[in-house]
Write a structure and sequence with these properties.
It contains 10 helices and 10 strands. By secondary structure, it is α/β, with parallel strands linked by helices. It has 2 domains: about 90 residues, Chemotaxis Receptor Methyltransferase Cher, domain 1 (Orthogonal Bundle); about 190 residues, Vaccinia Virus protein VP39 (Rossmann fold), CATH 3.40.50. The chain has a 7-stranded mixed β-sheet with strand order 6-2-1-7-8-10-9, with helices on both faces. A 3-stranded antiparallel β-sheet has the order 3-5-4. A hairpin with a 2-residue loop joins strand 9 and strand 10. It is globular, with a radius of gyration of 21 Å.
Length: about 300
């Protein structure tokens, strides 16, 4: 899900950090914070200085750099584009789990998918998008919700697009391997039918997403601040706890662009603390952090 900034660091720090392995000044931090916000929209407040220092010192060591000033200069060049992405991935923590905010999946199953299944059975095109999919729990939860209603869903023109800026978590999502603890929120009947027990790693029992789940979900790297490879329309978009760290104008812009990709009757699910501001009178709030575009059958 993407990226959600780790907020565990102490707040309010405004002084330079000069007692670590590398000098780290407030100016160094502000340079990195500016790059981070430009690239991802995430705003790092000064209280995140210890987090930034602890996450990036290993990168300085790996590159053989002696200061954060040199690191900032490096990632600002064309040659440093790869390291700039590595920095973004290092400074974001992807917090997710299966069936997180369960009311959304209950609404999806009861109010949205029955009509979409009818559309698919008639030969129609059905598209869902998990924006900020992190390590895959959200789109696979969408797939399981769909399979519970239509076990042969992969035979129809139904696809779930799953995107994230972090290529490392996308790799984990494509692997689709989850610990025993991670799958505890999945109904055992769904888990046993659509997932495969995998105990190949000694001492670490796990489950793999089954073929039917994988057939429904396609993963792709995408930055919500850049050009979007997805054009829609989508009948369902999940964008939950992704834009919470954007400033208000950027948050409204991203969610507004998403709402424009909804088909008539399509639904946009956002995080419980997020709200969509729009002048589009065809988009209505239907409760539980859910919006619906006016029109006929999604």
């Amino acid at each position: 899900m993407t990226p959600a900034l780790d907020i565990s660091a102490a707040d309010g720090l405004t002084q330079d950090m000069g007692d670590g392995e590398f000098p780290f000044t407030l100016e160094d931090f502000l340079k990195l914070a500016e790059i981070m916000q430009t690239e991802t929209g995430i705003a790092l407040d000064r209280g995140k200085m210890p987090l930034v220092y602890s996450r990036l010192t290993k990168r300085l060591r790996a590159l053989g750099l002696k200061s954060f000033d040199r690191y900032s200069a490096h990632i600002s060049t064309r040659a440093g584009a790869g390291e700039r992405r590595t920095m973004i991935e290092a400074l974001t923590t992807n917090v997710t789990r299966f069936f997180r905010e369960a009311h959304h999946f209950e609404h999806l199953a009861a109010e949205v998918l029955p009509g979409l299944i009818d559309l698919a059975l008639e030969g129609g095109r059905v598209r869902l998008w998990s924006a900020g999919c992190s390590s895959g729990e959200e789109p696979y939860s969408m797939a399981l919700t769909l399979l519970a209603l239509l076990p042969d869903a992969s035979r129809y023109d139904i696809k779930i697009l799953a995107t994230d800026i972090d290529t490392q978590v996308l790799g984990a999502a494509r692997t689709g391997r989850y610990s025993n603890e991670a799958v505890t929120r999945i109904d055992p009947a769904l888990r046993d039918r659509w997932m495969v027990r995998d105990d190949a790693v000694a001492g670490a029992p796990a489950w793999l997403a089954g073929d039917e789940m994988r057939a429904l979900v396609g993963f792709r790297s995408a930055n919500l601040l850049g050009e979007w490879p997805m054009k829609g329309p989508f009948q369902v978009i999940f964008c939950r706890n992704v834009v919470i760290y954007f400033d208000e104008a950027l948050r409204d812009d991203v969610l507004g662009k998403m709402s424009a990709l909804l088909s008539p009757g399509g639904h946009l699910y956002v995080g419980h603390s997020e709200r969509l501001k729009t002048t589009d009178s065809s988009l209505e709030f239907v409760g539980l952090s859910t919006y619906r575009r006016a029109g006929g059958q999604p």
